[in-house]
Amino acid sequence: MTDTVGQFFTDIEERRPLVPRKYTGTIRFDLSVDHRAEHWVLKIDSGAVTVARDAREADCVVRTGRDVFARIVTGDQGVYAAVWRNLLSVEGDISLIATLRELLPAAQEASRTTSRKPEV
């Protein structure tokens, strides 16, 4: 069975993606599974992203179940819809959630398809 969440963060670390330079800050993800928290931290520095595994202080803290986050990563659940349904909570600099959306595979695929020139 594939670890969707772990693979998402591993892919970010391996690809070192760039998000728009306007984003700078840290996002900590507190993902609950079986009554314990798993911590992941994204550090965004003028668009460059790195990943760590710890519970450090962060500009934005996202709390949700690991299963909900897995659905977000696969595109089966929207980030903002999860917030509205109280499946995901955000504390601190909520504008950094836009960075998360930039890093989701579905968003990256959409940007690749819209940036291509139409075939004639």
Provide keyphrases for this structure.
5 helices, Nonspecific Lipid-transfer Protein, Chain A, 38% helix, globular, 120 residues, alpha+beta, five-stranded mixed sheet
Task: Look up the CATH topology.
Answer: Nonspecific Lipid-transfer Protein, Chain A
Order of helices and strands: HEEEEHHEHH
- Taking pLDDT < 50 over at least 5 consecutive residues as the criterion, the unreliable ranges are 110-120
Spatial extent as radius of gyration? 14 Å
Instruction: Give me the secondary-structure category.
Output: alpha+beta
What's the architecture, going by CATH?
2-Layer Sandwich
CATH class: Alpha Beta
Main beta-sheet annotation: 5 strands, mixed
Strand content range: 25-35%
Strand order of the largest sheet: 3-2-1-4-5
Helix coverage percent of residues?
Answer: 25-40%
* Average pLDDT reading: 86
Task: Give the termini distance in whole angstroms.
Answer: 41 Å
Any overview of this molecule?
It is globular and about 35 Å long. It is built from five helices and five strands. The model is unreliable at 110-120 (pLDDT under 50). The chain has 120 residues and is α+β, with helices and mostly antiparallel strands. A five-stranded mixed beta sheet has the order 3-2-1-4-5. The protein has helices at residues 4-15, 66-74, 79-84, 97-103, 105-115; strands at 25-33, 36-45, 48-52, 60-65, 88-92. Helix content is 38%, strand content 29%. The chain has one domain (4-104): SCP2 sterol-binding domain (Nonspecific Lipid-transfer Protein, Chain A, 2-Layer Sandwich).
